[in-house]
Every structure is written in C-alpha cells, then in structure tokens.
Amino acid sequence: MKSDYMLYYSVQFSVTLGSTRRRPGTKWKRIGGLLKQIDSGPFGIVCGVNHHDIIFCRSGIVWGKLMGKNWRRVPGRLKHISCGEFGHWGVNKFHSIFFRLGVTHERPEGMNICALGIRGGR
C-alpha cells in the first residue's frame, strides 16, 4: 500500500453555533480508501478517483459523522474530479471534460453526466 494513496481526514474542527468563528483541525485521522485525487465541495460532498480512474463519492456525511459512512462507486472513469454546488466537473484520460448533474447531499454521486464536447489540450 503506497502512503501517497492513503486517505486522512482532519479532525477537531469546531464550529460555535450562532457564530462564524471556526477553529481548524490540527490532527489527521486515516479513513478507508485509496485515492490518487480527492475534492470536497459544499457540505456533505466529497469525491475522488483512484489510480484506475474509478470515481467514488463519500456517503453519509452529516454534522454528527463528518467522515461519512462509505464510498459509493460512480459510473464512468475520470483522472480528476472537482465538486461543486451544482454538480461535479471531471476530466478523463483523453482530456475530455464532463459535468455531472443532480448532485445533492443525499445523492453526492449525482444523477446524469453530460460530455461538454470540449477537449483540453496540452
């Protein structure tokens, strides 16, 4: 197991209710999974890809369980994914760009994917 692919989660993040004051985490806790790239978007949305370009989204992220429950496999393959409020952006091994619609806290993997017909260059 390569340490480059181990996943860690920052713990001890605290929020004072009724205030915008936050204290960032100072420790890391390992969670299960092996990803080469990971991104977090709006609260409850965390996705990543492994070294085979298989896409995963973390499910069950709530205030009482910020690390979530498990990883859900998402159809398709990407070398990079970025989580956003309205959907996920991704790039495959051919540098084609994709957008996944229907992303919600309850369904972090989204519902539909559309190719944008844009091919990135080098």
How would you characterize this protein structure?
- Strands 5-6-7-8 form a four-stranded antiparallel β-sheet, with no helix packed on it. A four-stranded antiparallel β-sheet has the order 9-10-11-12, with no helix packed on it. The chain has a two-stranded antiparallel ribbon with strand order 1-4.
- Helices cover 0% and strands 51% of the residues.
- The chain has strands at residues 6-11, 14-15, 22-23, 27-34, 37-40, 46-49, 54-59, 70-77, 80-83, 88-91, 96-101, 112-119.
- The protein has one domain (31-119).
- By secondary structure, it is an all-beta fold.
Quick overview:
This protein is an all-beta fold and 122 residues long.
**Secondary structure category:** mainly beta
Order of strands in the sheet with the most strands? 5-6-7-8
The helicity comes to under 10%
Rg of Cα set: 15 Å
Write the layout of secondary structure elements.
Elements (H helix, E strand, L loop, with lengths): L5 E6 L2 E2 L6 E2 L3 E8 L2 E4 L5 E4 L4 E6 L10 E8 L2 E4 L4 E4 L4 E6 L10 E8 L3
Give keywords:
4-stranded antiparallel beta sheet; mainly beta; 12 strands
